[in-house]
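Long-time lurker. I teach an intro course on protein structure, and each term I like to show students one example going from raw sequence to a predicted 3D structure in token notation. This year I'd like something fresh instead of my usual example. Would anyone be willing to generate the tokens for the chain below so I can use it in lecture? Attribution to the forum is fine with me.
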Amino acid sequence: MKKIVLFTSFAPNIGGGAVNINSIIPYFKKVDVEWLYLHDKDLNIEGCVRIGKPLTGGKLWKDLTNSVFLWLGIKAKKSQKILEQILARKADVYWIVGLNEAIPIARELASRTSTPIHFTIQDDVPYGVFARSRRYQWLSGIAQKCLAEVMRRVRSLDVTSDGMRDYYQKTLGINGIVIHPYVPSLPNIEPISLDANSVTVGHIGTIYSLPEFRLFCQALQEYAKAKGLNAQIITIGLARKYATIIEEFPKLIHDIPQLTEAEAIKHLYRCNFLYAMYPFNPASTIFRQTSLPTKLTTYIQAQRPIFAHTLADSSLAAVVREYQLGLICDRLTTSDLTAAIEQLCKYELTPNCFENARAALYGYDNVTKLEKCLTQTV
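-- Reply from a regular --
Happy to contribute to a lecture. Here you go:
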């Protein structure tokens, strides 16, 4: 068994990145993974070790100072302590997930060791994340330079979508392989009769932009009123920063705190359809074209039609379109959204469309491809 030391800037039980990794690691046959992570407190998860607190975030001016030091490669005590703890682990391969502070840590690690490094990118930080951030927008150029340096120095690279692979090929001349989460099989879902007097929409995880979602909420209310229906949106694990939308639509939105994926599916498959979106604004172009929402794996398992509220150039739209999983709406007027909702409520799914998507995107080959990367770099 080859020893792999994995480092992430996030905890093993939080967020889509952790979900993706946890879907694959248990199925490895040739490698043993020790997961090092940053978090405010120890989480007592088997096989995982907290090696420090996050290096970014917190009070504005202190965070800005720390971020400048970090991304410019200026040595600071906290980042060096984290680096030393990574280097203290004997490994055949270091595996770094390139999100936030893990990117400059990976750059420093590459200059300090001859041990091969495998690098995973789930979201483009410079222009997919920072360009949409008020606090970190000014760091985009510096972060892009750092990310490119890391990508050129690591032994192997995997990315989250075809769009991301093509983007880095075009902009940096660097090739990566596409790795999606692994979904062994679709759950057996018994047929149910939907309430003919209601229209229920499901959503899990992050809403990337409130303006688009607000318009959708307004359109759903108008559609329900015109048809004499009761309307409800069930959100699961809505981030605190988006909670104000519930105050705007208190009778429409019902939020459920964090659930396991299996528990979430039990709620989602009872919905008429499921909502997913990417922001329409120009600053989100690269994010929209290169990211792939983790919620898509959950939606495919829930086996309900998908309302993809996004421009046609997004990775989300590409999947929904190719596998005929629902409808793509690239409009921002309530009248157009209402028409799209009515169309989707009448939509007939193609037989086996969700299984076709699961097999093509989320099959076992994701495990074998990633394990091959980790073993070939030795």
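Some talking points for your students: Residues 197 and 229 are 5 Å apart (CA to CA). The mean pLDDT is 93.
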